[in-house]
Amino acid sequence: MGLFFMIVLCNDDGFNADGIRSIYKELAKFTEVVIVAPETEQSAMGHAITLTQPLKVRKVIENRKFIGYAVNGTPADCIKIATTVLFEQPPAVVVSGVNQGGNLGTCAIYSGTVSAATEATIEGIPAIAVSLNTFDNPDFEFAAEFGAKLAKIVLKKGLPDGVALNVNIPAAPHSEIKGVSITRQGKSRVIETFDKRVDPRKNTYYWYTGEMRVDEVDEEADCFQVSNDYISITPIHFDLTSYKAMDEL
For the chain, how long is the longest CA-to-CA vector? Predict the structure, then answer.
């Protein structure tokens, strides 16, 4: 497993998801790229890692070409194993996505796609997470092109130490996207509900559902910008310290 490459590509929608395959094609146009992604969907896994079972890594060859490794773990697992075991040298950049559905506001905390990028920065590797803000008939073409273009810039110029970019792209036609904004993480969140059901054995169970409520008034917030047809790029860091609270405490 001694292949050197430039970019590792991950996600939380799974190895065969349309979003990751779309951006793979774009990245492969200008650099070496290897997919290291979950075997199956791992959405909303956050930064979970696998401790109670072994990680299995399956080499994937399609059309007689090696394209990557499918891992029976979480997105963070994939990045950990990619940066420590699979290759002789760590990648220059990690790209995570393109995710189906936005990772805006507090949703970024739960996102496996964002966590894959964050894990890379913990390992000292610059990273970007790319999400398309829709679940309905997603067209990943423009998101993949933009994500690959941004990855090319990061590959050349790098990022500040410990910083990943959380990129969210409106589900609007390319011609209707107004521009790119550097944003902060917003406070919008999913309003959770649980659908109560009964199984054939009369046992009650609950199915999680909910709807993202965008109520941002701050124009610098990611949710505000994406809802107004701007691409949002938010620099994020794994340091969770609330520095403004330290003196008060």
Answer: 61
Span 120-149, average pLDDT: 96
Supply 201's token pair: 């054995």
The pTM for the full model equals 0.91
Q: Which residue spans within 85-203 are E strands per DSSP?
A: 93-100, 127-132, 163-169, 179-182, 189-198
CB neighbours of residue 136 within 10 Å: 7
Structural tokens at position 198: 């009964």
CB 28: neighbour CB atoms within 10 A?
16
Collapsing DSSP to helix, strand or coil, 237 comes out as: strand
172, 223 Cβ separation under 8 angstroms: no
Tens-digit pLDDT profile for residues 41-77? 998 888 999 999 999 999 999 999 999 999 999 999 9
Task: State the Cα–Cα distance between residues 193 and 195, nearest whole angstrom.
Answer: 7
CA 191 centroid distance within chain = 21
What letter does residue 176 receive in the DSSP assignment? G
For 177-180, the CB contacts below 8 A with 24+ separation are: 177/142, 177/229, 177/230, 177/231, 178/228, 178/229, 178/230, 179/230, 179/231, 180/230, 180/231, 180/233
**What is the DSSP track for 2-65?**
----SEEEE-SS-TT-HHHHHHHHHHTTTS-EEEEEESS--TT-TT----SSPPPEEEEEETTE
Whole-number Å distance between alpha carbons of 128 and 154: 9
